UniProtKB/TrEMBL annotation:
GO molecular function, one term: structural constituent of ribosome
Pfam families per record: Ribosomal_L19
Superkingdom, taxonomy of origin: Eukaryota
Entry keywords, A to Z: Ribonucleoprotein, Ribosomal protein
Signal peptide limits: none
Gene Ontology BP terms: translation
Protein name: Ribosomal protein L19
InterPro entries linked to this entry: Ribosomal_bL19, Ribosomal_bL19_sf, Translation_prot_SH3-like_sf
């Protein structure tokens, strides 16, 4: 009972302190809470962006480097003849550890700038699965070592390879 009373009084004191600090710091108030702090708007954004116009063009210009844009066009476009396909054996070179990771491409998630791939390999009898974001500045290069058997796989995501290392080793050996 006493601890509940202490907590309630401490909460009331901190709420009152925050309310007085927020009213002195900013003149705008939030109608649903007296303790909410409102951020001040920066004048760095252009008027067109503040009105909601040109946001996509702004994102397209500011997100991709030319090298990444070329990699996205060749490896991840559905219309490209050199596109990566699920079931391929690929090698990924990055800045962070592991610097070189070889494995089976088990999933591609195409989401524009947030495109990511999942690569799985078995190292020392332990399955290792790494997700790489293609637009990450730490990702240097993606090399196709071997295309999938018979040109393509029947599934879009090969998550069933997690449960059967035999199938994964057959896929890596090209006997599928």
């Amino acid at each position: 009972m006493f601890s509940r009373l202490c907590r309630a009084s401490a909460r009331l004191a901190s709420t009152a302190a925050r309310a007085s600090a927020s009213t002195s710091a900013t003149t705008a108030s939030y109608p649903f809470s007296k303790t909410a702090l409102l951020p001040t708007l920066s004048a760095e954004s252009t008027p067109a962006l503040r009105d909601g116009k040109g946001i996509m063009r702004h994102l397209q210009e500011s997100l991709y480097s030319p090298r990444k844009a070329e990699m996205m066009k060749t490896l991840f476009s559905r219309r490209s003849p050199k596109q990566l396909r699920v079931g391929s054996i690929i090698s990924i070179i990055s800045d962070q550890a592991p610097t070189v990771f070889n494995g089976v491409l088990i999933a591609i998630r195409r989401r524009g700038p947030d495109t990511s791939i999942r690569v799985r390999n078995i190292l020392q009898r332990t399955g290792v699965e790494v997700q790489f974001f293609v637009n990450s500045p730490g990702l240097k290069e993606i090399k196709l070592l071997k295309p999938p058997p018979k040109g393509r796989m029947r599934r879009a995501k090969l998550f069933y390879l997690r449960d059967s290392p035999e199938k994964m080793s057959m896929l890596a050996a090209g006997k599928h």
